[in-house]
Specification:
mainly beta; homodimer; five-stranded antiparallel sheet
């Protein structure tokens, strides 16, 4: 992070590096946080949500697949939503969802904006 | 966009498709909007900010290079900040900045989160 003359700031990082060799569990890292917004990097390696688990959040979430692919199950939707690199999904508050699968052959890197 | 049984919703899209063949000016598209947050896709093809132009925003901005590369000039910083695919930059409100260059050989696709 660098402070400008007025005390303001900017910060640079990357989503594609600094991934552990071992990845027993998915990684969730907060890379930006304010009163209104939390931005996370998520790294999955063939992971899926535990059996019977559903995300049910009080806030909306925008997710982007930066690398890899994933399948999300949305409550009351028949088909799994398949996402590949560059695809995004905007999920309203209390829309229950779960990760059915992520790419087993490469790391799937997500950007998640909670707002 | 799809409405669940409770009237809640989700919406899917992609950042890497639906790019015009001709791209005389950069494209700015709002893909998510709430009271607190605006998320845009930006597509540049060798574009840069006009001579002497600086962004000076009342809100913070998180940018991610989804594809391509770019160089940003930050006020009072000597070096241009070079960004490649997967790199992000978090820019505080009123940190003046401008786009010095974007990749001339391919489309640069940005995700911008204004918050």
């Amino acid at each position: 992070m660098s402070k400008g003359l007025k005390g303001f700031w900017f910060a640079k990082g990357t989503l594609l590096e600094d991934i552990p060799v071992e990845l027993l569990e998915e990684i969730f890292e907060t890379i930006c946080l304010s009163d209104n917004v939390k931005i996370e990097r998520i790294v999955s390696r063939g992971h899926a949500s535990p059996e019977g688990f559903w995300y049910d959040q009080e806030w909306s979430e925008f997710i982007l697949i930066v690398q890899g692919s994933a399948g999300l199950k949305i409550e009351n939707e028949r088909d799994i939503v398949a996402l590949k690199t560059g695809d995004y999904l905007n999920i309203g508050a209390h829309v229950k969802h779960r990760v059915e699968w992520t790419d087993p052959a490469c790391d799937t890197i997500w950007l998640a904006v909670h707002y």
